[in-house]
UniProtKB/TrEMBL annotation:
Keywords: Coiled coil, Periplasm, Signal, Transport
InterPro entries cross-referenced by the UniProt entry: Sperm_putr-bd
GO molecular function, one term: polyamine binding
PANTHER family: SPERMIDINE/PUTRESCINE-BINDING PERIPLASMIC PROTEIN, SPERMIDINE_PUTRESCINE-BINDING PERIPLASMIC PROTEIN
Coiled-coil regions, chain positions: 219-246
Protein localization: Periplasm
Protein name: Extracellular solute-binding protein family 1
Location, primary (coarse class): periplasm
Species: Anabaena cylindrica (strain ATCC 27899 / PCC 7122)
Any single GO CC term annotated in Swiss-Prot or TrEMBL for this entry: periplasmic space
Pfam families: SBP_bac_6
GO biological process: polyamine transport
Amino acid sequence: MDRRSFLVGTSGFVVSQLLIGCNGKNQIQLNVQLLKGSIPPQVVNQFHKSLQSEVKSKFVPIDQIYDLFRKLQTWQQPKTDNQEVWKRYIPFNQSQTTSKSDLVTLGDYWLKAAIEQKLIQPLQTEKIKQWPVLEQKWQQLVTRDKQGNVNPQGQVWGAPYRWGNTVIVYNREKFQKLDWQPKDWSDLWRSELRSHISLLNHPREIIGLVLKKLGQSYNTENLDQIPSLEAELKALNQQVKFYDSTTYLEPLITGDTWLAVGWSNDVIPLLSRYPKLTAVIPQSGTAIWADLWVSPAGVDKRALASQWIDFCWQPNIAKKIAVLTKTNSPIAKNIVAADIQKQLENLLLTNPEVFDKSEFLLPLSPAATKQYESLFIKMKNAS
């Protein structure tokens, strides 16, 4: 399940793993369910040591953003007698699966749905000391109205703690016989790459990169206003070997494709294992994704939750999260080349000019969303 898929089907229970806990349920003061791998254990341990001795915390890693979203949904479903009887036979700690957490990781792309479905509640930014330090671009991302749309008069619904990009990754060996290497979206249309590309199976990402190539925004509402868009999409489709959002990197490793478009959190772990692969952030700008802390609806707004968010935003901690999880930080400004593996420098050392050209995938109107989906289907079916 990729970070930008949205499904509302049923999901099985995920057995939680306890990282830091305590003896006795009543002693737990902070319960966090986080995306697995998005916070280093060293950071959790450091936070735990910074707390008063009588305060306890529990951090539970969950494999997928989708599982975390489903937990938010499950916590808001009314309990029925049948559910209560059935749960008696679950062969693990019931409270661990049903009790709400104080904070949960959620991807920014899921934020609108979580707000619309009343799964989360606004954060109390007045209790988060580091909030004013956060740059406007990040504050604007999480300031939304009750329909989940970006609105400067809205409330703050999330706290970003790491982010990444949609990137181009390619097999350098395949480009040795060519006199160029990919640097921007426009390179995807070069004749040498015909039938050698894999793209994400995602309308917003793919139509968005074409819009970016044309000097437009990822968040363009009316696609009919871009007269050359359909022709560009048809030409790009001729370059594509297949569309996929989960296994799109495997053919690149085996040499069946030469280039792929993917998310940096998928791509980065492969770069050290497969030296023949290189990744670049397109110079004309790209899409940005972010992982956020959100507060489930109905939980008490504990001061310790705000303290954890503050802790993650301390410059030295933000740097540690970014470096150890190989992502970017909305806070850290003191990351230098010596902190990062050589092959990751161009991905993790933020280029301000490219960052300013890059965009979050913001909510679109239902009509615009349908237009993107229809046009994407038409693109893939074009001969």
